[in-house]
Amino acid sequence: MYLYKKFFLFCLIFIGSISISSPQKVVIYGYIRDVNSGEPLPYSTCLIRGTGHGVAANDAGYYNIKANKGTLLLEASYVGYRTLVVELYAHRDTTLNFLLEPMELAEVQVSAQRQSLLIQSLSGKVTVPLQNIQAVPAFGGEADILKSLTYLPGVTGGRDGYSTLLVRGGNPDQNLMLLDGCPVFNVSHLGGFVSLFNPIAVKHVDLYKNSYPSQYGGRASSVLDVKLRDGSKEKVKGELFLGILSSGFLVEGPLIKGKSSFLISARTSNFYFLNANNRRELKETGQGNSLDYIFYDINARFNSELDKKTKIYFSIYSGGDYIDHQLIETGQKINNQIIWKEEALTKSSISNQALTLGVNRVIGTNLYGNFYSYLSLYNQNDIIEKNDIDIPIIIENKTDKRNGIAKYGIASRFDYQTPLSNLKLTFGFDLGSYSIIPDNYRVYRSIVIDEYSNIIDTTFGGNLKSSPLDFSIFVDNTYNVTKKLLVKGGIRFNYFVNNHFRFTDLEPRLSIRYLPTTNHAFGISYSIVNQYIHGITTRDDFIEKMLWFSASDEFAPQKANQYSASLNGVSNWQNFDYGVEIFYKKMNNLPDIYGVSYRNLSVFAENRVISGGIGDAYGLEIHIQKQTPIFLTAFAYTLSQSKRQIKEINSGEVYPSDFDRLHDFSWLMQFHYSEKISYGFMFIAHSGTPFSLPVGRVRDNPFTYSYNVFDGVNSHRMPIYHRLDVSVKRNWDTRFGRKKYIAVSIFNTYAKINPTSVVIENGKFKKKSYLTIVPSVSFHYEF
Amino acid sequence: MKKVIVFFSILFFFTMHSCEFSGDYDYVYKYPGDKLVMHAFLSLDTGVLAIITKTVSPIDSISSEIVTDATVELFENNNFLFSLERIDSMLFASPTDFVPDHNANYFIKVSANELDDITSGFQQIPYQVSIDTILFSGITSSTDITISFQDPPNIQNYYSLSIKGFIENEENYEEENSYFVLPSFLIDVFSDIEFNGNYRSITKTLSTDFSAYDFLIVTLFSLSEELYLFAKTLNDYEGTHGDPLIHRPEPVYTNIINGYGIFGSYSSYSVRINL
Question: So what's the pLDDT on residue A18?
Fold first, then answer.
């Protein structure tokens, strides 16, 4: 009750501030879009020249700015686009839409454009330029958004080749992944090597390492907000691509020219064709060894403007991974009846769906509303069968492991420009219902010998199933105290209930940005975030999987307190931009698995899941970027430490987290050799990852074979890691004025063995790795 | 075209050169010192048997693990009972007339010069589960043998199964799974998590040719939880050790304070099958 009172009092203070009378102003509002496709440009900026007053558009490209009556010079800008300046005589509220032109490859953003981006800069927030994502050499021929983010300071990817995201010492489950507003619970294919975000369909990527607007919640480390493109409203076009790992296409175009559009992209893995012979042999003879693997992605988005103020959209994602392994041997038959047969069948599937249906509406001149519903489904299923027939004995063994999570919700967000030109409010709610199966395990074992039979059919884990409810309301205010000082404060109220367990929390959020000069922005930020859905990573062979489960009395919600301070700047000298940030994050109630063998029957049934962990992470991040007409280079350096402490591990003593790296350096470079050829380089170096070395060896004796003993976790460091990835891209123009290009990339160009583990063999230390040099090629054709 | 061929040739060269996933690592390792190790088992059949050794450095193949001056003391219900007798350089045993009490709690203390003392956790003889039926057909190299038993409900049980072939009047035997070093009750352990309280049948296909033998002894072992965890984690360690994708190795379970190893207990039920 006390929390409710505090929350509503806080709201009243905000609303009360609106009642202050203000001079007569005009409101200019509208959308900032791409001139060619009509795509809105999320978080683009609009400022009034000569006043220093500017605003950022919202995620739908909608902006709303208050100004004094008279002649105004309005400037709209967005990363990768030419700035547009419009002179307007405003004597009343006016709708003004901007249509920006994309920059050519050889252009750079002048410092005035980059200065305007400082308006948006907040401590802990990174808007990832898609150009930089495309500059990162692709692993396996697949440009990957998650892997590309690892060039940013404070972001690491875990193991080589995996699309895991670890942000400022956090765990993989602590990242809120949003695809057009819908939370996604699994973001990888191929065991974690490829993420499900198809880069050719993506319009905008924001990564919040701190400074989360209060509309976001539920994950302790970061928010990755990915927006898909709407599709061109002017003409039909598309792209085909063929790579080492996968192939696919994208097609977009207008449904009604200028008003509605569609975008569809799909890709699938290439491995299915490699197994054709084995599949045929199995089908024809009834025996053989066949291994099939396939993954696929489909993204589709439909948009329509019902009128000048109303837009509806529908976004769908469907994807999955499927493994089917069959090993069958048959022997003698008598009277066509098999009297001997052995079969081992493994079917493994991971499926993901995300749907969002929403409407945006401009209400009056001061209010913008977005209302949407979403559905996210994630399921994993592993079926292992081993059946033996040796007449008269028939043995069947089947295990069926399932886990999954679904969330259905409705949410809204309203952006309100108050009568005060320097105060904007954002408020709304999110109501979601989960269905979670952390670990459902069915075992079926049958033995039949003539008249005798014994059958075991047991299911456990059903008691872990839960259907929690999650309700949040939030309010944010963005207050330009002066031309130089911006205060963004917000509060989020959470109500989470799982059976009899209720959790209510208030999460304050505060960001302050100060522009001491037009070229520098200083910011500080503080946030509290609670996480009510936990995830732990398990592994079957090389495939990483996430098990999701709900907070309860046994597994309290995770909580993170984070402080950060930053200094960002643009420099006219040599056209470089820089950012420096320090942070400290404290995390509580972290879950983990005790004993990480993948041979666990069920991590919950065997009581392997533990909770109550504490985490600390702190560090310094530096980012420098320079751009010329033919050259883009970006340096990122992170000095940080990340620690954990949990009772059951390391005897309850503090130990470094699994991917704690004191120094982490990356250097990204893109060089346009000519209009047709460009090169990309990425060099990464970081301190050795911690690992556990034995403190002794127990030798063979009549009661055991030899094994190593360990005392302490992550008490040693692997060698320094470094690798160089390169890529080259060659464009051609086709006869019909289209473009095609080939991209060749090499992961780990000089084949450095960067170990993922260190073992002792024959009295010597050996470093082991599963990846060295990986060349790849992909072909793209635009139509 | 020539440039393309040269480019792909260089690419191919790098790829072939890179097929190496392991290398020596010059790491300065400081061995923290020897610790006592005990592997000891308590049962009605054999009383207490204990192997006492010490750890050696994991990169040392020369040093001895033998402890020459160990004293091994058995306690029953926190009272000192007796010291185990040394049988050979590693093995200690309880007196032949010692029969453990089903309801008593036992622990072991070991001390040796220049090494820290170790103490085990408590152990009690587990409830014995009987074999109900055995079905098999003939004795050939591919015989299937099905053993059935009733699992007690409401308690967690842990098991292993052993099959041994004997010749009359000879002590030697051939054992299924004889290529393993471990005592038979530590091989293929399983819990009742899948069939708690139910009747359970297990079929084994014998890979050893028992046709030369006179009789089989089939034994169902009931293990303490600690013994089961030790056997399971030892097996898991074997499966994960050296795997480059395993970040944290599976530690072998121990209930020895200040040292390593296991003190576990088991009961057994055996059936003799004449061939």
Answer: 42
User: In a mutagenesis test of the A interface, which of B37, B39, B207, B245 is the best target, namely the one with the most A β-carbons within 10 Å?
Assistant: B245
Residue bearing the bigger pLDDT, A403 or B19: A403
Same domain? For B270 and B160 the reply is: yes
**Residue A258 contacts by C-beta under 8 Å, 6 or more apart in sequence?**
A38, A233, A234
The answer to whether residues B180 and B233 belong to one domain is yes
Instruction: Give the closest residue to B136 by CA, choosing from B236, B77, B218, B222.
Output: B218
Whether the Cβ atoms of residue A718 and residue A691 lie closer than 8 Å to each other? yes
- Residue B236: inside a domain, yes or no? yes
Q: Which residues of chain A have pLDDT under 70?
A: 1-23, 104-123, 131-132, 140-141, 161, 191, 540-543, 595-601, 736
Chain A residues whose CB is inside 8 A of the B193 CB are 460, 601-602, 605-606
Find the closest chain B residue to A756 by CA distance. Answer: B244
- Overall domain count for chain B: 2
Task: State whether A719 and B21 contact (CB < 8 Å).
Answer: no
For residue A130, the 8-state DSSP code is: H
Task: Kindly report, residue by residue over B217-237, the tens digit of the pLDDT.
Answer: 899 999 999 999 999 888 878
Question: What integer pLDDT is reported at residue B244 of this predicted model?
Answer: 60
Report the distance separating Cα A523 and Cα B134, nearest Å: 76
- Å from B22 to nearest chain A CA? 5
Given this model, what pLDDT does residue A7 score?
A: 53
Which range among B121-130, B156-165, B255-264 shows the weakest confidence by mean pLDDT? B156-165
> Nearest chain B Cα to A390, which residue?
B144
pLDDT for A19 equals: 39
Chain A, 673-732: which have a CB under 8 Å from a chain B CB? 691-705, 707-711, 713-714, 716, 719
- Residues 541-560 in A contacting B (C-alpha not used; CB under 8 Å): 541-542
> Are residue B220 and residue B243 in the same domain, yes or no?
yes
Same domain? B86 vs B212:
no
Domain end among B120, B152, B173: B120
Q: Cβ atoms within 10 A of the Cβ of B256, count?
A: 21
Q: Could you tell me if B140 and B75 lie in one domain? A: no
Judging contacts by C-beta atoms under 8 Å, the chain B residues touching residue A456 are: 194-195, 198, 200
B153 and B93, same structural domain?
no
Helices (H), A213-268: none
Residues comprising chain A, all counted = 783
Cα–Cα distance, A655 to A641 (Å, whole number): 11
Phi, psi angle pair for B16, to nearest 5° = -70, -35
Length in residues, chain B = 275
Expressed as residue numbers, the domain containing B232 is 131-251+266-274
Flag if A703 and B182 touch (Cβ within 8 Å).
yes
State whether residue A621 sits within 8 Å of chain B by CB: no
> Is residue B166 very low, low, confident or very high in pLDDT (cuts 50, 70, 90)?
confident
Cβ neighbours of A489 (radius 10 Å): 18
* pLDDT tier at B11, thresholds 50, 70, 90: low
Query: Is B205 part of any domain?
Result: yes
Q: What is the pTM of this model?
A: 0.87
Domain stops at, among B120, B144, B171: B120
